Amino acid sequence: MSLDRRTFIESSAALSAIATLGAPHTSAAEPKSTVNFALVGLGSLSTNQIAPALQKTERAKLVGIVTGTPAKEKIWQDKYGIEQKNIYNYDNFDKLVDNDDIDVVYIVLPNSMHKEFTIRGAAAGKHVLCEKPMANSSADCQAMIDACHQHKRKLAVGYRCQFEPHHLHCRELARSQAFGALKAIEAGFGFKIGDPNQWRLKANMAGGGALMDVGIYALQACRFLTGEEPVAITAQETKTDPQKFAQVDETITWTMTTPSGVNCYCSTSYAFSGINRFNAYAENGQFGLNPAYSYEGIQGSSSKGPIKLPQIDQFATEMDDFAKCILEDHPSRVSGEEGLRDLLAIEAIYQSIRSGQRVNVKRIA
Ligand code: NAD
Question: Architecture of domain 35-160 in CATH?
Answer without folding.
Answer: 3-Layer(aba) Sandwich (3.40)
